[in-house]
Amino acid sequence: MLNSCDDRESVMDDDLLSTQAGTSQTAASPQLRPNNDLSIQPKKNTILVSHGRPPWYSEDGTRISDAFVVAVAGGSASGKTHVARQIVRSLGSIPTVIILSQDSFYRRKSPEEVELAHKNLVDFDHPDAIDMPLFASCLADLKAGKQTNIPVYSFAEHQRLDETKYLYGASVIITEGILALHDPALRQLYDLKVFVQCDSDLMLARRIQRDTKERGRSVDGILDQYLRYVKPAYDNFVRPSASHADIIVPGSNNHVAIDLICTHIRRQLAERSNRFRQKMAIPHQYLSPGDVTPPDVENLDLIVLPQSRQLKGIFTILRSKSSSRQDFIFFMDRLSTLLTEYALQQLPHRPKTVMTLTEVESHGQELDAEYVCGISILRSGGALERGFRRVMNNIPVGSLLVQSDGKTGEPLLFQVMLPVGIRERHTAEKAWVFLLDAQIGTGAAAFMAIRVLLDHGVRQDHIVFITCLVARSGGVSVLRRAFPAVRIVCGEVDDHMREGWLEGFKAEGNPEGDGRMVWVMQPGMGQIGDRYYL
């Protein structure tokens, strides 16, 4: 029998995911147990993506906006989960929402406490049952744009498991639990505090109906648990926390209150938006001369491959409009191999002596890095992966999906699939990361990818960016100014960026539908991802 206070709430059901414009998805750490084990926080801690996360940083690379945090508290069976669902549904196409449940943060128990819990003799409704400092720490990281790894709690075992769940990238965080407003440290992190108020008789009636129908419990057992634990906790801790709420929402017929909450959240997100891709694409038109690095390779501090005749020949084929797709793929793989080999010189090495087959000592070097991985910026970064893997054998490779907004052209972060070593702060701080993208034109995708790594704790001087082409007059000058310690290894440097329109899209300043604004590198190599994959 489960006696967790949060277990009494309805779980997030599948129809919640279908409300996000048909594009929502649940992201979970690969080390989690399968979701068909309904006793382990089923669908409680969820990432919902419907629109993509816009830039949360400024031109100098610093974070300028926190996630918006909404707390939803109230008595057991008051309708907290329903209110959280309705908020998500009503918000519609918002960037990224994380639903964070109080369930995850039950404290570890001794074997004796676990035995009592199975006998229904442990009070899970008391504040001492929750690890409030850990709850506040994880929420603070998420609010500040950092990754966190929250605990996983098994209701069947009445114990916190050793595994954790990785969460990152929220624009809106909804925390839900009966004690969400009880702890002062948690309250300081909330931007909006909601208390769901419901009649005690109605809450008890809901509990009896739900637990008898869905969980096979007896009425006597439900009443015993309610009188022993639930009612005292509500009177002593839950109901008094309503005084800290910004909004009191009724437990039923609450559509007006939810509309007001969603209107406030949308307004706050609009105020925190930041757009500057056009400034990166043509920085000399927007920034003062003193803020823009002169457009030459030396001042941009780029690491350019030696311009051998072989390299010139490869670029001639890759740039040619008449090159076949087969030739393009072959020589792109060759170029990415050369780039990766050259980029390896940026990793630290230490002396090593080995004994040869002729019994003679040979003095050489070996890699002096605890953890090395690669991350592709999709989709053009994927064109570099085959050559990268040829050189860096058996190292983990993750990906970031960054796409341009159809209306504004700003980068949007849709998916983060990072290697496990980057998801943990203590290993990310020691990691060396190769970022892969085919070219740096406006630099918007590169900017976002570097910011993601910094959010995870990767050191700036441990990031090596591998790319085929860099536009000298594009966003690379802004990128270098924001992240001077990042090393950029490229094949060639092109001179110009040209403004153009992507055909078939009507936008502001383009009412005839000639397309949305894009910035094209010249001479360039075209859309590298399309040429490689299509």
Structure description:
The strands form 5 sheets. Strands 9, 12, 13, 14, 15, 16, 17 and 18 form an 8-stranded mixed beta sheet that branches. Strands 1-3-6-2-7-8 form a 6-stranded mixed beta sheet, with helices on both faces. The protein is elongated and about 85 Å long. It contains 18 helices and 20 strands. Helix 6 crosses helix 7 (219-238), helix 11 crosses helix 12 and helix 12 packs across helix 13 (385-391). The model is unreliable at 1-42 (pLDDT under 50). It is of the alpha/beta class. It has 2 domains: 6-269, P-loop containing nucleotide triphosphate hydrolases (Rossmann fold), CATH 3.40.50; 285-350 and 368-494, Rossmann fold (3-Layer(aba) Sandwich). The chain has helices at 14-17, 80-91, 111-118, 132-143, 184-187, 200-214, 219-238, 255-272, 277-281, 297-300, 309-319, 325-343, 385-391, 420-423, 425-428, 444-455, 476-482, 528-533, and strands at residues 46-49, 68-74, 96-101, 148-154, 159-167, 172-176, 192-197, 247-250, 302-304, 349-355, 361-367, 371-378, 397-404, 411-417, 431-436, 439-440, 463-471, 487-494, 496-502, 516-522. A hairpin with a 5-residue loop joins strand 10 (349-355) and strand 11 (361-367). Residues 19-39 are annotated as: Disordered. It catalyses: uridine + ATP = UMP + ADP + H(+); cytidine + ATP = CMP + ADP + H(+). InterPro entries: P-loop_NTPase, PRK/URK, PRTase-like, PRTase_dom, Uridine_kinase-like. It comes from Hohenbuehelia grisea. Belongs to the uridine kinase family.
